[in-house]
Amino acid sequence: MAVFVARLDLAYPKHRLGVEYEGDHHRSRDTFQRDLRRINALHACGWTVLRFGAADVYRQPGRIVEVVKAALPGTGPSRLAQLVHERSGT
Predict the structure, then answer these.
(1) I need a labelling partner for 41 at 20 to 30 A (CA). Which of 15, 31, 51, 57 fits?
(2) What Cα–Cα distance (Å) separates residue 53 from each residue in 26, 27, 34, 40, 90?
């Protein structure tokens, strides 16, 4: 029996990969706390959740596609780590 854990903006259930857009509405204290619980519940169920903000969506949409592709099976975790590291600017 399936149990509802959370709704994602975009999900690849077969790969347990979720993609979330974190807009301004996620900045309120209550919404932020709810998001933390939701993401933690998804992680506990074996999901990877990629989170992107407005700057990602509007300035670097191609980067989002790269990161999502890298998170799917067959590309290896090192490629995903490299892309996320590049994205963060650290």
Answers:
(1) 57
(2) 10, 11, 17, 19, 17
Instruction: Give the dihedral sign, CA 84/54/40/70.
Output: negative
pTM of the prediction? 0.79
Q: How many residues does the chain have?
A: 90
Q: What is the mean pLDDT of the chain?
A: 85
What percentage of the chain reaches a pLDDT higher than 90?
Answer: 57
Q: How far apart are CA 14 and CA 87, in angstroms?
A: 26
Backbone angles phi, psi at 13, to 5 degrees: -55, -40
Examine the pLDDT at 90 and tell me if it is beyond 60.
no
Q: Which residue has the higher pLDDT, 58 or 25?
A: 58
Closest CA to 63 of 83, 43, 39: 83
